[in-house]
Amino acid sequence: MPAENLNYFAGIKKDFIYSARMFSQKMQQFYSLDSIKNSYNARISQIAEERKTGKKIVGTFCLFVPDEIILAAGADRMILCGGKNDTVPIAEQYLPRNICPLVKSSFGSIINNGCSGVKSCSHFCMVDMVVAENTCDSKKKMYELLGDYVPTYVIDLPQRPDSPEALKYFLGELDKFKVAMEQLTGNKVTVEQLKIEIKSSNDTRKLFHRLYSLRKMDPPPISGLDVLKVLQKQYFLSPDELKKSLRMLIREVEQVMADREPADIEPADIEPANRERRPRIMVSGCPMAGGNTKVPEIIESKGGVIVAEESCTGTRSFWDLVDEKKDPMLALAERYIKIPCSCMSPNDRRIDNILELAREFKVDGVVYYTLQFCHGYNIEKYKIQQALKKEGIPMLAIETDYGDSDVEQIGLRVDAFMEMLS
Ligand code: SF4
Ligand code: SF4
């Protein structure tokens, strides 16, 4: 684990930190991750240059907004989700305290205004329009306030995706959204351009599949924390830069695999009781926006290794491809309406998906991650725990915020969970 990942451990017991360092010694460092980590300034400069040429920039907060339509209209996009704690108190001057930290952090960085405040979201002022979506209550109401700061367009989502009318309704919403993008940019969204963008996004999704397939190895060659940082950056980097970075990282990981000494690899057929191996963990639940790595840091410092993330900063973002043979708008509607977000009801698709991932990635246990006051994911926890229990997969539920007051307490619970899985 790189040293900067240890910021959550300030003031935590010595042996806790020690175990984090021991773990870090066993994991490979990947140089291509540095270029992803350092991409921030280059991307901001790129966006600034694009704006000078009249290109429009669209800010988004959610997976339900299809990038393909934004890009086909000739605009660029960037994510505005907040993952840092320092802007939460600012938001709490305007919003109730008991809503999820992701919404508070995002709103706090926006109202801190813009480009002058040290704690502000430095790219919010570059956005010409926010494209929002009707998902959870906190976000919906936050978007109403956002309209005072920036033009805000809301895509209405059908909340019962399996009902016969849902697809038609969503397709109508995407058609309206396409027109809004055409009006914003002054460019026509053509079928040909949509097909190009769909192929490009599918190529990125396939690269993520390749990266994830490497994590199926036992032990996996890359830490969950490293993968999470790439997943967080996917919404920020340009599509070309993201693909380039992913290809570099995959090549590097594959090379490490090829160079592995046989002694480094424990045969998968050794009985778990006789193995010295880290428990394979899947994290499932709320998204972890950039800057929020608290729980994965704790899991991996306590000896677990994260092999999959069922979240919007995980498989939900890339698992399903868009059908390139169909009419592009219909194919987009079909793909995006299937995202198993907890604001959908019923959401059994998510349970099936979690079980499938647990089998595919041979997970030993699931850490169910909920942000405080995220009622949707919190309530779904019950059904998911039942489903995992039937499969004999233990689950640890963690509900937390962006602060560090509970780090030690979470550490103790994760520790006990790891011991049980070992
Ligand atoms: S969890 Fe749901 S609302 Fe949040 S980003 Fe994902 S799809 Fe959107
Ligand atoms: S984490 Fe939950 S409450 Fe927060 S924005 Fe996402 S869905 Fe809404």
SSE string, helices as H and strands as E = HHHEHEHHEHEHHHHEHEHHEHEH
Q: Note the total helix count.
A: 16
Major sheet description: 4 strands, parallel
| Number of E-type strands | 8
Which structural category fits the helices and strands? alpha/beta
User: Could you tell me which ligands this complex binds, including any ions or cofactors?
Assistant: iron/sulfur cluster
Percent in strands: 5-15%
Terminal Cα span: 21 Å
**How many structural domains can be distinguished in the coordinates?**
1
* Largest sheet: spatial strand order: 2-1-3-4
Using the alpha-carbon principal axes, give the shape.
globular
**Spans where pLDDT lies below 50 across 5 or more residues:** 1-25, 114-119
Rg estimate, integer Å: 21 Å
Question: What keywords describe this structure?
Answer:
422 residues, alpha/beta, four-stranded parallel β-sheet, disordered N terminus, binds iron/sulfur cluster
